[in-house]
Amino acid sequence: MLNRIDRVVRVVGVAAAATLVSAVMAFAYEGGAVANGGTIKGVVKYKGTAPAPKTLEVNKDKKVCALTEKKAKDLVVGAGGGVRYAVVSLTDISAGKAFPEGKTVLDQAGCEYVPYITIVPAGAELNIKNSDGILHNIHTYSKKNKPVNKAQPKFKKTIKASFSEPEMVKVTCDVHGWMRGWLAVVDHPYYVITDENGAFELADVPAGEYEIKVWQEDLGESTQKVTVPAGGEASVTFELAAKK
Amino acid sequence: MSEAAVAHGHEEHHHGGFVSTYVFSMDHKMIGKQFLLLSLFMMIIGGILALMVRWQLAYPETAVPGMAWVPEPYLYDGIIPPETYNMLFTMHATIMVFFVIIPILVGAFGNFLIPLMIGARDMAFPLLNMLSFWIAAFAGVLMLSSVFVEGGAAAGGWTAYAPLSANPVYTGVGLGQDMWIVAIVVLGISSLMGSINYITTIINLRAPGMTMFRLPLVIWSLFITAILLLLALPELTAAVVMLLFDRRFGTSFFLPEGGGEPILWQHLFWFFGHPEVYILVLPGMGVASEIISVFSRKPIFGYRAMAMAMIAIAFLGWVVWGHHMFQSGMNPTLGMAFMTTTMVIAVPSAIKTFNWLGTLWGGSITFKPPMLYALAFVSMFVIGGLSGIYMAATPVDIFIHDTYFIVGHIHYVVFGGSVFAIFAAISYWFPKMYGKMMNETLSKIHFFGTLIFFNITFFPMHIIGVGGHMRRIYNPTQYEFLLPLQHWNVIMTIGAIGLGLFQIVFAINFFWSMWFGEDAPQNPWNANTLEWEAPTPPPHGNFLEIPTVYRGPYEYSVPGEKEDWLPQAQPVAATAH
Amino acid sequence: MLPWLPENISTYGGDIDYLFKLIFWITAIVFLAVQVTLVWFLIKYRAQPGRKAIYTHGNSLLEIGWTIAPSLILVFLAVLSRSTWDKVKAEIPPVDVTVQVHSKQFNWDIVYPGPDKMFGTEDDLTLENELNVPVHKVVKLELFSNDVIHSFFVPVLRFKQDTMPGRQIDGWFEATKTGVYEIPCAELCGFGHSGMLGHLEVRSAQDYASWVAERWSK
């Protein structure tokens, strides 16, 4: 089960300063206090037996990058069939809790992106750290947002980027081809990433009926309806199968 | 034409004020000086960019001294990031080629010398001439402004290979590269105007008796260069416009995903690019011929051969462009063809070198600063020319291409050649331009310092090139096989810093002498050519009376003559023998 | 200059180095001759009171002489270069191993065809920046680019070939010594050009066989 610290770190580490910027951008979403909110708890499961994650070849900058073995994170399924690194969100919520305070940080450490998926409010500033002291480069791929392609040598400890359109943005490094990460650019804070058991929790949801969606990079997307009772709990289970 | 125009010793204009005398002048001499000043300013910028490149190569990822104030993302507390590094060498080369060497040799000296040395009062088209300067200045402003736009300045090398330069996504440079293209187009317009003027003037406005084969060789060189510019620059303009279209208007001339062909860019660029490098060196050769003859007190050895050699170089320059593309993937048979033509083009340059030596042989040589610079031109150009033979041999080029060997070659011909020729020309014609003498001691200090530090900076490039050191890399210490060569990078950077420091001596000499130098006599070098017939400095209209030419320009030490010089315009003696 | 040339582990490297050395000696001799003559003339013919310069406009015989001599030397060099150029770039000898190189910003994707020796099949293997080849065998490289022009440069093999997007360019080499060697990129390809680096691993026959067995152990 997710503990509180993990949830705070994982779920919505977003910049408060960015809300000043985002105030300029007309959000359709209104954040504020939520009275008597409910909680959605659930799990994302994999249908069938998942293949073991591949080991990534590290053949550059080994002194920094090959200290630990690296495994691909595109499909990580736990012992109980839970899918890690899936993004669960409400698609049609227009008012709810506010974005939490704090900076959004993506780190390049040990030649991996930490965290693997970073949630970034649309328009907010993302701080990209280079903790490795070697040349990395941030190269993003996205449909709606302008791509970012910037070198980050060791003396550029932090570079900043921002994305205006909500979507999933792929992050790669042209210098280290095995590096992969994702940015979930969001327009409201009801986004959460599943843990090693595939479990997730969305709290302070105003009572009502919503559509809940899961996104996973290999397995695609799936939606369901969920009704959140005031002050109560709703339960959702997703079962995703490998795409043909 | 009324000869009543009185010649004063100063640049006084009867009717105009400051603006029409110094800003929008249509006098070729003033326009020449405007080109000179603009280009010397650009040279300082180009030099600083080079010093930054050299700093990064010697001490990678350390802060460049004195640059901590430059804001991000250009520098990070004075440290050069990779994107900026690519901009630095791109802009260094672009500025030096287009905004220093051509404007000084062709714009400044072409303008100043042509009417004076052919015995004309001004260029054929004075208004066009004035426009050509201001358009060039505007191009310079555009080029320098490109640094300040989002994404920074062009970063694809001055050669701007596609697709790297054809799609902003590959370099991250947007408007900056577009501005680079537009600046080059604008500069091309200026150049075209100049070429039209020079060619027309030389063909039509020669003084009586000034046949083509009595023209000083520097005028021959400028004439040939103007023709090369006339033919080459429009082709470059077409190429860069195509590039701009690929970048901004959805075409695919050079983009394979649209059916385009990246190698086409290389053909188009180098078809201009190779004649361009002869444009850079031919005027220098002309200057060297003038000065060596004057300071040896001897006719130039093989005048006709010298003129023919320049024509041969210009002509052959059109059929060697593929030697820049031996490793590009073009058909190997073309490699053989271009190797042959490239080997052949070395011959006229060799002929010229031997003729300069022949001029010195049996001479009576004095070592005034112009002569020192001219001799250095010959000496350094020989090194640059010989190093070219390695690349001309296609199998050797497999290894040498895109290494520092080429960078060494480039700088020996362009700095060792053209820039020393520029210093020679400035020190030689300064008295005529400004009516003052440059300080001889400072000139000699500048000369020796520049010669020594030039060689320290650029000779080791051949060494590291042979070691396989690639061009345009930001951090040589990333490669194990280059680590043993890294100390050369440090030596070269120290050389470059020394080289830069000695240019301060030149700057001081140039500006101080302009105002406080010793007054120059009309003909301080006892030279034969027509510009020395005009008062020093020449007024509007140049000559009190248009001279008549009686002989070639190099009649020095004529047996039976009292003086060891015999001006072109001196009438033949009544008792001729 | 010569001591700085990297070691040569290529069958045709010797031909290239031979040309290099020949040109070195020719240019060194010409260089010395010209510079020494220049300095000698400057000393011998410096202005001295009472001596006038020799008035001459040139010498046709000399002109002809010093036109023909350099021409002969240069044409000779061109002719000599031809066979090596053809050998390296125009002809590919019978091939033992074929590997594809897909260059991209800022890495070399090396694609091995696998035991079926065909590209585009299940057993293809892509390794980033690692080119494994057997020693004493002719290796053919099929070079591609995914984005901009790069240049596959292996100094010790005297191998350099630009890669071009939209086109396949073939090259070959035969390595004569085992070891690990660097493969830099030799054509400006963006801000990651510096540091774009692969490694060539030339393996003995036995070593190579075990590498193949290990890689395709399924």
Question: What report would you give on this structure?
Answer:
- With 244 residues, chain A is mainly β.
- Chain A is built from 3 helices and 18 strands.
- The radius of gyration of chain A is 18 Å and the shape is globular.
- Chain B has a single domain (18-533), classed as Cytochrome c oxidase-like, subunit I domain (Cytochrome C Oxidase, Chain A).
- In chain B, helix 2 runs antiparallel to helix 3, helix 7 runs antiparallel to helix 8 and helix 7 (217-248) runs parallel beside helix 9.
- Chain B starts with 17 loop residues before the first helix and ends in a 61-residue tail after the last helix.
- Mean pLDDT of chain B is 94; it is low at 1-13.
- Chain C has helices at 13-44, 60-90, 205-215; strands at residues 97-104, 107-112, 125-128, 130-134, 138-145, 150-154, 159-163, 169-174, 179-184, 197-203.
- Chain C has a 5-stranded mixed beta sheet with strand order 3-2-1-5-8, with no helix packed on it. Chain C has a 3-stranded mixed beta sheet with strand order 4-10-9.
- In chain C, helix 1 packs antiparallel against helix 2 (60-90).
- The mean pLDDT of chain C is 94.
- Chains B and C meet through helix 3, helix 8, helix 9, helix 10 and helix 11 of B and helix 1, helix 2, strand 7 and strand 9 of C.
Q: Can you give the helix content of chain C as a percent range?
A: 25-40%
Q: Biggest sheet of chain B, open or closed, and with what strands and sense? A: none
CATH class of chain B: Mainly Alpha
Number of strands of chain B: 0
Strands of the widest sheet of chain C, in order across it, are 3-2-1-5-8
Output the CATH topology of the largest domain in chain C. Answer: Immunoglobulin-like
Overall structural domain count of chain B: 1
The CATH architecture designation of the largest domain in chain C is Sandwich
Count of helical segments of chain C?
3
Greatest contact between two chains? B-C, 100 and 85 residues
Which percent range describes the beta-strand content of chain C? 25-35%
From N to C, what is the helix and strand string of chain B?
A: HHHHHHHHHHHHHHH
Radius of gyration of chain C: 25 Å
Q: Name the structural class of chain B.
A: mainly alpha
Distance between the termini of chain C: 50 Å
- Could you say which overall geometry of chain C the principal axes of the C-alpha atoms support? elongated
